[in-house]
Specification:
Helix 1 runs antiparallel to helix 2 and helix 4 crosses helix 5. By secondary structure, the chain is an alpha+beta fold. A hairpin with a 2-residue loop joins strand 21 and strand 22. The longest helix is centred in the N-terminal third of the chain and has 48 residues. The chain is about 35% helix and about 20% strand. The strands form 8 sheets. Strands 3-13-8-9-12-11 form a 6-stranded antiparallel β-sheet. A 6-stranded mixed β-sheet has the order 5-24-19-20-22-21, covered by helices on one side. Strands 1-2 form a two-stranded antiparallel sheet.
């Protein structure tokens, strides 16, 4: 018999060749692939160097302007935190039957606040292509850092760290040029990869950059501020640098108006100092007002659950008074609580009503869902929509202790849903944020927030026929469900609410 061998390419066709011809074919095929890979590597490296050259030239132009374009600018008065009148909760006595709404009424709405629309995250003016390893540098050193209990690393050799011998325009420009060299490319690339890996919102990414920069340059140093500003800028974000005495300050642009922080208005954009808690900035600083191509302002939306490394501290069981079997035990990641503690309250388009949407539209983190929902879902499964919402409503009404923000926090502070599950006290806005999150996730029903002066309630859009006080919006009827009218069922407005002044905040 003749000696033949069969070779199957991609499972589609069969080549039948003599052994010698087959060997030659394999060698030819391998050589072709090798040469093709070499050509691709050359092309890829050429393209990367072109991107690097383009970005380097932009940074050279930026540094050139930095040498002389610093102006003294006064801070604008801070936007005061909202101070609503305090409306105490109303409690239905435990020994009395739940009240019944015999005369459901429509609620007049004076304003409907649309759902705020997040924008795509900023991106670099050109892709940040990683620098490949070479025979000269077969291994690139890395720097480890920890942000909100989560440890990771970025590639960087500390021997290339910048040094600011003095805090003046020329020294800062010289250091900026050093930062634009190839030694920092993989550090930027890795930071952007981590932003994607952890699905970090803009605020979390900024916090991470501070920890990265301080791991490289030391905590609180001018060098760490400049490195943070550089990586933030190269990532596509709008920022400015300020000389504040002997301190370098990073100013970040925000499309949100942030409460309780001084700001600088430059080219009709608000820039806020990125300060640690307890730090401050002078009323007058020198600012480099030059802009970088395609820069975009930071957003304070949290569109994705921020999943940090887990650090639990105790757990709590939350139980409904009316439905004693309705109980759930949960523990909350303290690293997430640390992140939320840094989060600044803000509004959009000068409308103070928008501030709650940022909290209410933030999804629950995975670990809380995995604990909480398997316990709550069987308790509402198979129930009518009205019964299911009443169960969740009473669980929120009676499972948490009410207390005023002024007493607990020294001022108004809204909670993300996980914070209400973590802290021993919560008020009307916190309860409404948590309740609407549960109803949307567990029952799939639309919800809105309803604001009265001094009080925030909720309303649910049932697809079943449900009676009760209601708000009519775009052909849909939303039934009032108030987590702070403690013991009251769906459909009842808390006493003394002026239904001529209600405002509605639409939710996702």
């Amino acid at each position: 018999m003749k000696s033949f061998n069969q070779l199957i390419f991609a499972g589609i066709f069969v080549l039948t060749l003599p052994v010698s011809a087959y060997s030659q074919e394999i060698e030819s095929f391998e050589e072709f692939n090798r040469k093709r890979q070499e050509r691709f590597d050359v092309f890829n490296e050429q393209r990367r160097k072109e991107f690097e050259e383009f970005r380097r030239k932009r940074n050279e132009e930026f540094a050139k302007y930095m040498r002389g374009k610093w102006d003294s600018v006064d801070t604008n008065p801070l936007t005061p935190k909202p101070k609503d009148e305090i409306v105490p909760p109303v409690v239905v006595p435990k020994n009395e039957p739940a009240p019944v709404n015999t005369e459901p009424k429509p609620i007049h709405v004076v304003e409907v606040v649309p759902v705020p629309e997040p924008e795509p995250q900023p991106e670099p003016i050109d892709p940040i292509e990683e620098v490949p390893l070479t025979p000269v540098t077969p291994v690139q050193p890395s720097v480890s850092f920890t942000f909100f209990g989560t440890t990771d690393k970025v590639r960087f050799d500390k021997k290339n760290s910048i040094h600011l011998p003095s805090l003046n325009e020329n020294a800062i420009a010289d250091a900026w040029l050093q930062l634009s060299e190839e030694a920092y490319t993989n550090l930027i690339h890795d930071c952007l990869e981590l932003r994607e890996k952890y699905e970090l919102c803009d605020w979390a990414y900024l916090q991470m950059l501070r920890d990265v920069s301080e791991s490289v340059c030391g905590k609180g140093t001018n060098e760490s501020v400049l490195l943070m500003a550089y990586v933030y800028c190269q990532s596509g974000y709008q920022m400015r640098l300020a000389i504040d005495g002997q301190k370098l300050q990073l100013l970040v642009a925000s499309r949100h108006q942030i409460f309780g922080l001084p700001y600088f208005e430059l080219d009709a954009t608000n820039f806020y100092p990125f300060l640690r808690e307890g730090d401050s900035i002078n009323d007058e600083v020198k600012i480099c007002a030059v802009s970088f191509p395609q820069e975009k302002a930071m957003s304070l939306f949290v569109p994705n659950a921020q999943e940090f490394a887990v650090n639990y501290k105790g757990q709590r069981t939350i139980r409904s008074e009316r439905y004693p079997d309705v109980a759930a035990t949960v523990k909350v990641n303290q690293n997430l609580m640390s992140f939320y503690n840094t989060y600044p309250t803000s509004m959009l388009d000068d409308n103070v009503m928008t501030r709650w949407a940022m909290y209410a539209n933030t999804p629950l983190v995975k670990d809380v869902k995995e604990q909480l929902y398997p316990q709550l879902r069987p308790l509402v499964s198979g129930k009518s929509q009205l019964d299911a919402v009443n169960i969740l409503l009473n669980w929120v009404q009676t499972g948490f202790e009410y207390e005023y923000d002024d007493k607990v926090w020294g001022g108004d502070r809204a909670f993300f849903a996980e914070e209400s599950l973590n802290y021993p006290y919560c008020d009307c806005e916190d309860r409404s944020i948590l309740f609407t999150r549960l109803v949307r996730d567990l029952l799939g029903l639309k919800c809105i927030l309803v604001f009265y002066p001094g009080h925030l309630a909720a309303a649910v859009c049932f697809t079943d026929s449900v009676n009760g006080d209601y708000i009519q919006l775009d052909g849909r009827r939303y039934i009032v469900s108030d987590p702070t009218y403690i013991g009251a069922p769906v459909g009842l407005t808390m006493p003394d609410m002026d239904n001529q002044t209600a405002r509605v905040i639409l939710l996702e």
